[in-house]
Specification:
binds 6-O-phosphono-beta-D-fructofuranose, 39% helix, single chain, glycolysis, ATP_PFK_prok-type, elongated, alpha/beta, nucleotide-binding, Phosphofructokinase_dom, metal-binding, four-stranded parallel sheet
């Protein structure tokens, strides 16, 4: 078989582990040929690709980012995009395409699959918000980076008797905020699923100081918003592609908390450091398993599906289901965290 692989959307630790696993399973075990498109769907649209053999994927397991490059270009965003992609798949004699990506990429994958292309998807996102899989690779790494940062920030916050408002990634969901906040013993966790009341948040943080504590750490997901009317809020400008760039909720929150508490407050934005660098062992294993199962699905011609983790098993889920809803932080998970804040 001839298989094309691509990585699309925001990068994520573990992408290279999937690529490596796909090549090992397909080339070494099945005798397939694998090509990798550069910079996501853009590579397919422009017929820009490289041959992926065992040498090409040597030594990449622990490397962050993606050796193929990524972009947010999607065929459906261009007038003749889907047709062009179909034409190139035929021209290149591809039997299957394995796109590795998050919400946007999986939506594009579904469209391409509906247009008749042989697609097997692999989900990825540090945000862990894809509903049909228990976990996405990249999340464990991101939580680890954020937790380490929070541990470090505690000591400087204490020295200066400050409130540090730490912004982590998560545009629609608060999974990174919840897990890193719990792991590091933060004093408040603010997530997009629960619009916050600034007075209530200030009261909670203030109680800590009244109890004689010298500092406070507030973890906030970048997509968190105040409850309507709770405080003035600047939504921020979109980037040149119309994607949210985020207004810096940590900056706005730190100003509001400083005014209400009379304590120095500083924003800390962890940003893309959460997405960079080497994946954890957990993420490498999950990514490797996804790659292996994606190739098996290609050989079973189980197109229009993607890999997913359910419990400890890897299963195949229809792409149509995968893009229906996001996995948000449920109330009971938030309550578990709240009790130890
Ligand atoms: O989807 C993953 C993610 O890391 C989000 O948490 C974040 O909002 C976004 O990507 C940032 O994307 P960009 O790299 O385009 O700024």
């Amino acid at each position: 078989m001839r298989i094309g692989v691509l990585t699309s959307g925001g990068d994520c630790p573990g992408l290279n582990a999937v690529i490596r696993s796909v090549v090992h399973r397909a080339v070494a075990d099945h005798g397939d040929e694998v090509i990798g498109f550069r910079d996501g769907w853009k590579g397919l649209l422009e017929c820009d690709y490289l041959k992926l053999d065992l040498d090409a994927v040597g030594g990449i397991l622990a490397r962050g980012g993606t050796i193929l490059g990524s972009s947010r270009v999607q065929p459906s965003h261009l007038r003749d995009g889907v047709e062009r992609a179909k034409g190139h798949v035929e021209e290149l004699g591809l039997d299957a395409i394995i796109p590795i990506g998050g919400e946007g990429t999986l939506k594009a994958a579904r469209l391409m699959s509906d247009a008749g292309l042989p697609i097997v998807g692999v989900p990825k996102t540090i945000d862990n918000d894809i509903a049909v899989t228990d976990v996405t690779f990249g999340f464990d790494t991101a939580v680890g980076v954020a937790t380490e940062a929070l541990d470090r920030l505690k000591t400087t916050a204490e020295s200066h008797q400050r409130v540090l408002v730490v912004e982590v990634m998560g545009r629609h969901t608060g999974w990174i905020a919840l897990h890193s906040g719990m792991a590091a013993g933060a004093h408040a966790i603010v997530v997009p699923e629960r619009p916050f009341d600034i007075e209530e948040l200030a009261r909670r943080v203030g109680e800590r100081f009244e109890a004689g504590k010298r500092f406070a750490i507030v973890v906030v997901a970048e997509g968190a918003k105040p409850a309507p009317g709770s405080m003035a809020f600047d939504e921020g400008a979109k980037d040149i592609y119309g994607h949210e760039r985020f207004a810096g909720i940590a900056r706005q929150l730190s100003i509001e908390l400083e005014e209400r508490l009379g304590k120095e407050a500083r924003p800390v934005i962890l940003g893309h450091v959460q997405r960079g660098g080497t994946p954890t062992a957990y993420d490498r294993v999950l990514a490797t398993r996804f790659g292996w199962h994606a190739v098996e699905a290609v050989h079973r011609e189980e197109f229009g599906h993607m890999t997913a983790l359910r419990g400890t098993d890897i299963v195949m889920v229809p792409l149509a289901e995968a893009v229906e809803t996001l996995k948000t932080v449920p109330e009971d998970r938030y309550a578990e965290a709240e009790c130890v804040l």
